[in-house]
């Protein structure tokens, strides 16, 4: 009988004893794709969930809300949870069959928070000492004032910026607000039609800024660095984002800030038609409505049970009403 040296025997025992448990010690990666305005709250949610689940690594990747959905529907990525700033995007874009023929991308979602649009700025912004809740639209319309919005083709805050400025026209009885602040500075030309009480803004397939009056970024969260650097004077942002980043802001009337269910009938009088051709088969119209955040577990999520557990925990955390977070429903 051949006898192994003691040193080799010890190595063999260690290898055998560890071979069966390497898989069990590996962390489960939970991929979460949220709207950019959820990134700061989700840092806390991630920490709390991982503390209670030592074998889970929550990986968060923020995008504009439309881009969040397209990670699943267009790029065919397998993610565990999608969370957007406009609940209507989920049924409109995900209640449709997957290309693999395995049912819809999702068939349900959970709504969990609200927000409101504000005009954010800094101490260094032009006319920072002049702007008020009464004259904000006049200040933003001045030729030397630079305004930032997120891309309405990619981000809910972007098309909501168009809605807010259009709703402001009726509220302040000034039909030039949208064109002077945004419309006149976008190319190709943005078409605005009015039929009865409904105003429809039709965007070109590729929207670009013209001149230096308006700056466009892919998501509202990316406007923050422009504000900090003085690249824009004012940006249309969510209240929670402005507060979390210590920005000054102008609160807008509830009739136009998309925050109140009491004014839902007024909000829906503005429709933004997204010109992107890929949206044609799933509905390209975004209708004004109160801001509501929602999350869903895609049908092809790698870890659906764990994803639903994370979503339940997240919804519970938002329900506590933390400062600088979107408000609970």
From TrEMBL:
CDD domains with a match to the protein in the record: PBP2_ModA_WtpA
PROSITE patterns on file: PROKAR_LIPOPROTEIN
Protein name (record): Tungstate ABC transporter binding protein WtpA
Gene3D superfamilies, per the entry: Periplasmic binding protein-like II (3.40.190.10)
Recorded family membership: Belongs to the bacterial solute-binding protein 1 family. WtpA subfamily.
Top-level lineage group: Archaea
GO molecular function, one term: tungstate binding
GO biological process: molybdate ion transport
Species name: Methanofollis liminatans DSM 4140
InterPro entries (alphabetical): ABC_trnspt_W-bd_WtpA, ModA/WtpA
